[in-house]
Amino acid sequence: MKNIFEMFKKDLIRFVNDKTALLLTFLVPAVLIIIFGNIFGGNGGSRGKANVIFVNKSNTEAAKIIEEKLDSSKSIRLIKKYRIDETDSVTDFTEEKAIEYVKAGKYAAAVVLPNDFLSDTSVTMSIKYYYDPRNEIESSIIQGSIQRTVFTQLPQIFPSLLTRQANKFLGTEEGEGFRSDMAEIVSDYFDVPKDSILSFTSKEITSSNFLNESTDTSSESFIDNLIKFDSVQLVGADLKNPQVTRIVGGWAIMFLLFSLTSIATSLFEEKQEGTLKRLLCMPVTRTEILFSKYLFSMSLGIVQLMVLFLFSWVIFDVDIFTNFLNLVIVIIISASAAVSFGMIITAHAKSLSQANGIATLLILVMSAVGGSWFPTFLFPDWLQVVAKFTLTYWSVEAFQQVMWRQAELSAITLHLLILIVISIVFNVYAIIRFNKGRIF
Amino acid sequence: MLKIKNLSKSFNNIEALKEVSLEIKNGEFFGLLGPNGAGKTTLMNHIIGFLHADEGEILYNEKPIKFGDKGIRLKIGYVPQEISLYQELTAIQNLKIFGSFFNLSQNVLKSNIDKALDLVQLSDRKNSAVKEFSGGMKRRLNLAVSILHNPEVLLCDEPTVGVDPQSRNAIFEMLQELNKQGVTIIYTTHYMEEAERLCNKLAIIDSGKIIATGSLMELLNNLDKRETLKIHKTPESIELINKIEEIAIINEFDFKYELIPNSNFQKYSDLYRYFEDIGLSSDLVEVSQASLEDVFLHLTGRRLRD
Fold it and tell me: Model confidence over B220-251: pLDDT tens digits?
């Protein structure tokens, strides 16, 4: 027993003295729990809202009420205006502009209440929903929120509208008779109790009764047939495997960061083996050593990503060839940024184990925050801002633009520029540190 | 050829080198002798341009060597203390990779690799992975990598650490052969036997300071006597050691005592008479030639391997 206790003590002392093990055991899970907590609303955090373009072309009161209800949604934020190019002025979205913005990936969806949203002659409420299912979760949340809002409110409106129309043309007395007859017909046709239809039709359309959620579910099938929810998928409709196409970029950049960082930190291994010192005692400059690592890491990263994408093409039929040139450009620049990340870790760490610990922590955090695992719209607003300071975010976005949207180079210029700037800044800093002999 | 002038270097306020000055001439086999941590490797690192000096300078043929000096590395070869090889690669792959940095043509490099492999007697194992080599073979390959560019000066930083006697002798012979061919060799060691056997000029370094320089004979001349007096450890000598201490400074080792007699007992006749008087058998007393070890002991009051 004493021996067991002594060996336990030995392991405990070694563990406590191993900063990397401590970091990976306690700090990494703690950081990830904080991020997950914020994403899914725990820890008192609030989940971010999905931005949805909203265009109201109808003058009806019902349309105004729908808009009001959507405005108060906890899941979505209605965007009604856009900035006119090269000016400070903003203007209301039109349907055409909304479509353009969704296609360009600026917003995930647009809701349009058309002119005939609820015409005098129509018994169908028409809503147009343009969307880009670039992320399945985001898309489901937006569509679900809109449908829930509309469907839970509309039971209040249609019967009243029908009654109002009948009374207008037939007079109150005959109108009531008509209402009763119609309720019977509808009851027979849709197989719902006549009384429930009559109770609806006796209500007047007001903001108060409209906004109160209906609890009567017996009329749902009836109502379902009166709403025309016209969904138009603007992007990715032709993709053979949208699920894999969506996620492949995020996972690609995460694994790229892991593999390329390990190559950069292999400088520590070379130091331990003595080969680095031998190289430094030969007619070789420190910059040359660093660039050889950079070149090797870049080459390996590019090959790794190409294999990964080819694999996804062979196995999952992901389309990588339609926009192949731009995909290659994103791969090269992402690999460059990932290598520079490894270089800066190496430039700051004091040992291999420290480098590996810091790299693991940062890669997991960047992957979580930058959108490799979840869409960033799920994050609280402050975390969405933080996401933009990670190279993962820009890389994931660029991959998505190229693969999901088949975007042209101009659409990813900003993403690529930011990744290039990250590469340059990180690498220059690493070279300065390395040349001053502060690393090795 | 190589002049080191007042070189000083500190690491975290610990002085690794203190105003070191040395001159190494063309063709010398120069030994740098000192215990572990004396500053030998730090000095080597400055000569190869691997470290910044805090003060002082090193001149190679009157030209200062700067930190990261690429040019100097075409003229100087460096055999590091560690086995600095890519273990998973073969001997020939290691030689080709490291040789490729010296701007040699393919033919010259190939010829130099063959010569180096012959010298270190590894031609028949050139296609084996280094990780399969014995410690001695790795040491020899470590040396071969450093001479691919036919350097004018070869820095050897304790190149025989952990090597069996046979491989050690082989390395000595290789270095002597290179020295005969005109290569200036600077050799660090804490083994005085190595320094005595190989070097025609020596510097003794301790705690970052050069405490003596010269040929072996010149260094031995520092001693009052060219012989050392030893008494074998036995129950009899252990019992009498207190009496012996009255006439000499005693350094105790595992199996013997080493004596530095005081001024009244400089003649061996006087010493032997004293031993006879106190009852110490003369069979236990041994007089041997003084060595560098004795010089170091004389200069520092410590042994090299303390």
Answer: 877 766 677 889 989 999 989 899 888 888 88
- pTM comes to 0.71
For residue B84, give the nearest of A275, A285, A435 by CB distance: A275
In sequence order, the β-bridge partners of residue A397 are none
Nearest residue to B147 (alpha-carbon basis) of B177, B169, B190, B105: B177
Contact between A341 and A426 under an 8 Å Cβ cutoff? The reply is yes
SS3 of chain B: CEEEEEEEEEECCEEEEEEEEEEECCCCEEEEECCCCCCHHHHHHHHCCCCCCCEEEEEECCEECCCCCCCHHHCEEEECCCCCCCCCCEHHHHHHHHHHHHCCCHHHHHHHHHHHHHHCCCHHHCCCEHHHCCHHHHHHHHHHHHCCCCCCEEEEECCCCCCCHHHHHHHHHHHHHHHHCCCEEEEEECCHHHHHHHCCEEEEEECCEEEEEECHHHHHCCCCCCEEEEEECCHHHHHHHHHHCCCEEEEECCCEEEEEECHHHCCHHHHHHHHHHHCCCHHHEEEEECCHHHHHHHHHCCCCCC
Interface of B with A (CB under 8 A): 48-52, 67-68, 70-71, 73-74, 78, 80, 82-87, 98, 101-103, 145
Per-residue pLDDT tens digits for A209-227: 443 444 444 444 455 556 6
Closest residue in A to B72 (Cα–Cα): A283
Return the axis-axis angle of helices A242-273 and A136-153, rounded to nearest 10°.
Answer: 140
**What is the Cα–Cα distance from A70 to A55, expressed in whole angstroms?**
12
Rounded distance, CA B140 to CA B153, Å? 18
Burial of B3 (0-12, 13-18, 19+ CB in 10 A): middle
Average pLDDT per 10 consecutive residues for chain A, totaling 440 residues:
81 81 80 74 57 87 82 85 80 91 86 79 74 78 79 64 64 72 77 72 47 44 62 82 81 86 82 88 86 88 90 88 93 92 86 84 89 80 87 92 87 94 92 72
Provide the b/e sequence for A215-231 (b: ≥16 CB within 10 Å).
eeeebeebbeebbeeee
Residues of A with CB under 8 A from a CB of B: 273-275, 277-286, 435, 437
Residues ≥6 apart with Cβ < 8 Å to B105: none
How far apart (Å, rounded) are the C-alpha atoms in residues B66 and A224?
Answer: 84
Minimum-distance CB partner of B84 among A274, A283, A285 = A274
Residue in A278, A285, A286 nearest the CB of B80:
A278
Q: Which two tokens stand for residue B225?
A: 């006597």
Chain A neighbors of B147, CB-CB under 8 A: none
Angle between helices B106-119 and B135-146 (to 10 degrees): 140
Could you tell me if A236 and A133 are in contact, meaning their C-beta atoms sit under 8 angstroms apart? yes
| Greatest Cα-to-Cα distance within chain B, rounded to the nearest angstrom | 76
Phi, psi of B260 (to 5 degrees): -120, 95
**Rounded to the nearest 5°, which phi and psi values hold at B55?**
-145, 160
